[in-house]
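Most newcomers find our protein records easier to grasp once they have seen one. There is nothing in a record beyond a sequence line and a structure line. Getting from the letters to the tokens is the skill we practise here. An example says more than a description, so a record of this kind follows:
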Amino acid sequence: MLIPDHLVYAQTHEWVRVEEDGSLTIGITDFGQEQLGPLVYVEMPAVGRSLVRGEESGIVESNKTASDLHAPVDGVVLAVNEALVETPDAVNDAPYEQWIFKLQPAVAFSSEGFLDAQGYLKLVS
């Protein structure tokens, strides 16, 4: 199972990468995609939508189950990965390369309340 050190993790199995401009890129973890199995559908939030931390922001679905995506922080959706509409299973092949949406946080991002790689490994072990 891959858990890159340069990301932070939510207990709901989303990863967060802080970009140089302060925006956030969000995807689903390797553990999360393994639990779901091959993805057949990804529902993403609309660009421009305001999200509140913890709010359901989309859905990832496999043949066996569906799981909600959650906003890691308050913010506005900047972009969504449109390629996942046609190839949602790309997340299974490369979960840390296939981002789901990008968010402009309402305030500067703080990793407080998130897990580092070691903490996330403890969570899923």
User: Anything to note?
Assistant: The CA atoms of residues 26 and 92 lie 15 Å apart. The chain is about 20% helix and 35% strand. The two ends are 10 Å apart (CA to CA). The chain has one domain: 8-107.
